[in-house]
Design goal:
Muramoyl-pentapeptide Carboxypeptidase, domain 2, four-stranded antiparallel β-sheet, 4 strands, 13% strand
Length: 164
């Protein structure tokens, strides 16, 4: 698989350009979803290369640690992943998530590309579509970006907006 590394500013510029178009946030989520499929493939290849195992075969704590490392290595940010087998949802939080712009003055969570990216990634991992909602965002003044991942019903039940 070929790999492209872009500076964070490139993502910010693309994001700003797309947001200025009709249905910009929706288009960013759609593009992010496609990118999330590729991100999962890249992650799975890296896990296989390092461990010889498929990601799905890893214990959950090893999987989340490998994913957090992969995201940080890819420049997305340092991520904490709260995932438990007995929970309906998973939460990802980052105080330096690349799409969150602390000076953006957004009125609500604005990491649209990332929301799609994570939906594509975890949907591929789970083998079924999953919902992702950003419940806190640096672009909207929060101290961190926080994403909730799970089935649409589970995300609706557990994704109240949290203080930054």
């Amino acid at each position: 698989m070929s790999r492209l590394v872009l500076p964070a500013g490139a993502l910010q510029s693309l994001r700003a350009a797309v947001l200025d178009t009709p249905r910009g946030a929706e288009r960013l989520r759609e593009a992010g979803s496609v990118a999330g499929l590729a991100l999962y493939d890249d992650f799975a290849a890296r896990v296989r290369e390092r461990t010889g195992a498929e990601p799905e075969a890893m214990p959950l704590d090893e999987y989340t640690a490998a994913l957090a490392e992969h995201l940080a290595h890819g420049g997305w940010g340092d991520v904490t992943i709260d995932a438990r087998r007995d929970a309906d949802v998973m939460r990802l939080t980052s105080a330096d998530w690349v799409e969150g712009e602390p000076d953006a003055d957004a009125e609500s969570p604005a990491c649209h590309f990332s929301t799609g990216l994570l939906a594509g990634f975890f949907g591929r991992a789970a083998g079924t579509p999953l919902a992702v909602v950003e419940v806190a965002c640096r672009s909207a003044g929060a101290a961190r970006c926080e994403f909730v991942v799970g089935s649409a019903d589970a995300v609706r039940r557990s994704a109240p907006r949290t203080p930054g």
